[in-house]
């Protein structure tokens, strides 16, 4: 016979691991006394857990939903080294989980030929739009030298470390990791190729993202070390190429997409950003020209010998910039705006395919 209090606690998720605290072994004891007071003892992964207040409040709220419970007393303690090791063993192994043959996570690198085309803003807004659709989404800010995703997502919290395992902060339902979370006072990251590769590899092996539907990588512009490392560490990943309407920008962006001919990746599509600016009288001004997105799709389709579609054209809106500065993605803060609606439409095109089982080894043998 099930215990109503434990059933209620099973609905409480650890805010970082995104799994029920009962499954994670975090509930040490739970009982209701004769006076209708629920007593729950919760074990935190580390003593300095930054979200201990959230866990305490969620547990108390869940306990009070049980019939006959009038109040809840929650005590917090810390896991022993053995309990923490058991938790780590149950969560992951030191491998790249997205490379496993049975992984259903779709990995998409957001690429561009040069900086300043809005690649990072697009990554953050696409992720939030996908999460709002009910998908489990993660972001790796792989632009190590030009990291900006934490600020765009309004993240000031540092990742939680459980020994060598890293739990990424969560914002708007999206799990995010960035080198910017490990440097102080906006210090520059001065690394060469091997260190960049090692950083990306550590993000993929040591960070516990859990089971994701989509993992987005905000790639640095161009075709440098990180682009090569992504193809090596995530050979099944796809590329989404971002450009502005300017023909010169499209020519540079072509190189970022054409790297797929060498790496074996596929280009899922092109997004044209800053396509036009709508003036107060309703007319459109095209400060960066027009046609760059279409030109890029034609060139990539020819070069890759496959259809590369133009997934959308996003207008230039001051509110998109303002939302990024405030850490409030436009697709959530101003979802009725033209730019937000176009980004949402692009996100739906990218995620319209459900995670399938075709070609996977299910471990079932006919008898």
TrEMBL record:
<dbReference type="Pfam" id="PF10609">
    <property type="entry name" value="ParA"/>
</dbReference>
<dbReference type="InterPro" id="IPR034904">
    <property type="entry name" value="FSCA_dom_sf"/>
</dbReference>
<feature type="domain" description="MIP18 family-like">
    <location>
        <begin position="6"/>
        <end position="75"/>
    </location>
</feature>
<dbReference type="InterPro" id="IPR002744">
    <property type="entry name" value="MIP18-like"/>
</dbReference>
<dbReference type="Pfam" id="PF01883">
    <property type="entry name" value="FeS_assembly_P"/>
</dbReference>
<dbReference type="InterPro" id="IPR019591">
    <property type="entry name" value="Mrp/NBP35_ATP-bd"/>
</dbReference>
<dbReference type="InterPro" id="IPR027417">
    <property type="entry name" value="P-loop_NTPase"/>
</dbReference>
<keyword id="KW-0378">Hydrolase</keyword>
<feature type="binding site">
    <location>
        <begin position="113"/>
        <end position="120"/>
    </location>
    <ligand>
        <name>ATP</name>
    </ligand>
</feature>
<keyword id="KW-0411">Iron-sulfur</keyword>
<keyword id="KW-0067">ATP-binding</keyword>
<comment type="subunit">
    <text>Homodimer.</text>
</comment>
<keyword id="KW-0408">Iron</keyword>
<dbReference type="GO" id="GO:0051539">
    <property type="term" value="F:4 iron, 4 sulfur cluster binding"/>
</dbReference>
<dbReference type="GO" id="GO:0005524">
    <property type="term" value="F:ATP binding"/>
</dbReference>
<protein>
    <recommendedName>
        <fullName>Iron-sulfur cluster carrier protein</fullName>
    </recommendedName>
</protein>
<dbReference type="GO" id="GO:0046872">
    <property type="term" value="F:metal ion binding"/>
</dbReference>
<keyword id="KW-0479">Metal-binding</keyword>
<dbReference type="GO" id="GO:0140663">
    <property type="term" value="F:ATP-dependent FeS chaperone activity"/>
</dbReference>
<dbReference type="InterPro" id="IPR033756">
    <property type="entry name" value="YlxH/NBP35"/>
</dbReference>
<dbReference type="GO" id="GO:0016887">
    <property type="term" value="F:ATP hydrolysis activity"/>
</dbReference>
<comment type="function">
    <text>Binds and transfers iron-sulfur (Fe-S) clusters to target apoproteins. Can hydrolyze ATP.</text>
</comment>
<dbReference type="GO" id="GO:0016226">
    <property type="term" value="P:iron-sulfur cluster assembly"/>
</dbReference>
<keyword id="KW-0547">Nucleotide-binding</keyword>
<dbReference type="InterPro" id="IPR044304">
    <property type="entry name" value="NUBPL-like"/>
</dbReference>
<comment type="similarity">
    <text>Belongs to the Mrp/NBP35 ATP-binding proteins family.</text>
</comment>
